[in-house]
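Below is our example:

___
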Amino acid sequence: MFVAAATKRELLDPKKSPYRDYAVNLGKGERENLQPEELTLLENVDRRTLGSARLEQVLDRFLYSCYTGLRIGDNILLSRKHIKKTSDGLVVDMMTEKGKGQHVVYLFNGKSQAIVEKYLRLYPDQPTIFPPETRSALGYYLKQVAKQVGIERNLFFHSSRHTFAILLVSSGSEIYTVSKMLTHKNVSTTQIHADLIFQFVS
């Protein structure tokens, strides 16, 4: 943090920084998914018990990613221009944040369409679908949501993508379809999580 601040203020030449090639080991990434009862709990919670509109918004956007598989960065960037009306309903059509190609997400069982329509109505003059929020704030408030509804473990935003994969497999989708919907460049990336997915649905 201090190195970044010093570089920004031009007190430190980034080319001469002794930390230039230093990589921070953050440990094993979070790959947990929601259990079915946890997803049901989040879907059916009485929103008044959350205590704030902000927590409700964070819950909505987390559920939206559970239904669509959008990464947290794409969730933040999702705007009105990405929402297209088709004969099958609303779809998301956007270039993913990681730049791995066009990402088209058909809205899942109407649940995510209802969320989008809610925020289109709530914020008609706002360019992004959801209110502006940082990644760190989303992570922090998602943990508050989990605490409020009685989920007694850390909940990470990325868990929504694994939950989405399990929803797809549960509905009969094959691993290649799951890989495409998650916008993985190689199916081998999806297969890293395949054991978890198929253990869950077997």
Observations:
- The CA atoms of residues 36 and 51 lie 24 Å apart.
- Strands lie at 83-86, 89-95, 102-106.
